[in-house]
Specification:
This is Dipeptide epimerase. Its cofactor is Mg(2+). GO terms for molecular function: metal ion binding; racemase and epimerase activity, acting on amino acids and derivatives. It is a single chain. By secondary structure, the protein is an alpha/beta fold. The chain folds into two domains: 2-115, Enolase-like, domain 1, CATH 3.30.390; 120-348, TIM Barrel. The protein has helices spanning 51-54, 58-68, 81-91, 96-114, 118-121, 140-153, 166-179, 196-205, 223-231, 246-254, 265-268, 271-283, 297-309, and strands at residues 2-20, 23-37, 42-47, 128-130, 133-135, 157-161, 185-189, 213-215, 237-239, 260-263, 287-290, 314-315, 329-336, 339-348. Helix 10 packs parallel to helix 12 (271-283). The longest helix has 19 residues, at 96-114.
């Protein structure tokens, strides 16, 4: 059934260095996967490892794909994609970014073969959606300049990275909030940067500003600290790095540790695991968010399909061609004035 498997690696360069609490990124190693069946249908996947979160490296992903993703792996009809999901989870256990790469390539092939869209396969909720724009850790004046620039472009939700200096962050947040209009939203992402005392200080200081949410204010997995922050009832607390799997999501959400979850394909192991976590969160009336890493347009397109397939509350998909000058991918989707739309076709050049 599968005629060829093509695996390659390319270093993509950000248009501008991006800084968060634990790193400053200028370029990213991305693994590209292309599978072709005997009829000439193509399935594309890509993997952008976040070693700090999942422990994967580009070398580990490349090696695992070369070793385990052979033509013999595809020994079932393509229609049995859920059985392939189970097989991927076992074969690439402990490698969620690798799992996501393989599953998205398989589903992309399935959709191309049967001329359907992944967004319709998984729900078909809407045709367009608004994405937010993320502002990295920058000096005060540059932060405000970037916020003004993106509001002018048309973005209505700004995500502000913080977590390095609580006093500076409070100053920035207050200033940014003054710039935003009433129909704009502001969310924060500390990337685990604060200790508990700093996080409490921040949340109490901005409690009157109507911030929509804050992601991962303290080190991931500290359930007691997260519960303490949630009980302040100032700003909704959303988990990101703390939740890598459905079992993590079940523990954090059913025990009411947080108000919601940022689900990323690179963390959870692919679209089907994404669906499981999303529906769990929705059933508990929790905030749902889809996020991304520094990713190629291939994996970003899969995330866009999910964002359009489901009633996800917050869309954070501002990578792909928005980030890179040299992404070797054509098509997928467009972003205009903060609005995401799908394009016809997706090709690896």
């Amino acid at each position: 059934m599968i005629k060829s498997i093509y695996i390659s690696e390319k270093k993509l360069h950000l248009r501008k260095a991006f800084k968060i609490t634990y790193e400053e990124v200028r370029n990213v190693d991305v693994i590209f996967l292309k599978i072709t069946d005997s009829e000439g249908n193509i399935g594309l996947g890509s993997a952008s490892p976040d070693t700090h979160v999942t422990g994967e490296t580009s070398k580990k992903i490349h090696t695992s794909l070369k070793k385990y993703l052979t033509e013999d792996f595809f020994n079932m009809p393509l229609d049995h994609w859920y059985r392939y999901h189970e097989k991927i989870q076992i074969r690439f256990r402990g490698l969620p970014t690798t799992q996501a790469c393989v599953e998205e390539a398989l589903l992309n092939l399935f959709c191309n073969k049967y001329q359907i869209q992944l967004k319709n396969l998984f729900g078909g909720y809407r045709d367009t959606c608004q994405t937010m724009m993320t502002i990295g850790v920058l000096p005060y004046e540059e932060t405000l300049a970037q916020v003004r620039k993106n509001i002018k472009i048309g973005y209505k939700t700004i995500k502000l990275k913080c977590g390095l200096n609580v006093n500076e962050d409070i100053k920035k947040i207050r200033a940014v909030k003054k710039i935003l209009l009433k129909n704009h939203k502001l969310i924060l992402d500390a990337n685990q940067g604060y200790n508990l005392q700093e996080a409490i200080k921040l949340l109490k200081s901005i409690s009157s500003l109507k911030i929509d949410l804050i992601e991962e204010p303290v080190k991931g997995g500290r359930i007691k600290d997260l519960k303490t922050l949630k009980q302040l009832d100032t700003v909704p607390i959303v988990a990101d790095e703390s939740i890598l799997s459905l079992s993590d999501a079940f523990r954090f959400l059913t025990d009411d540790v947080v108000d919601g979850v940022n689900i990323k394909l690179i963390k959870c192991g692919g679209p089907i695991n994404f669906l499981n976590i999303f529906h769990l969160a929705k059933s508990l009336s929790k905030i749902t968010m889809i996020g991304c890493n520094y990713e190629s347009t291939i994996s970003m397109t899969t995330s866009v399909h999910l964002a359009l397939a489901l009633p996800i509350d917050f869309i954070d998909l501002d990578s792909g061609h928005l980030d890179f000058n040299d992404d070797p991918v054509k098509g997928g989707y467009t972003v205009h004035e903060g609005i995401i739309k799908l394009k016809k076709g997706l090709a690896l050049l």
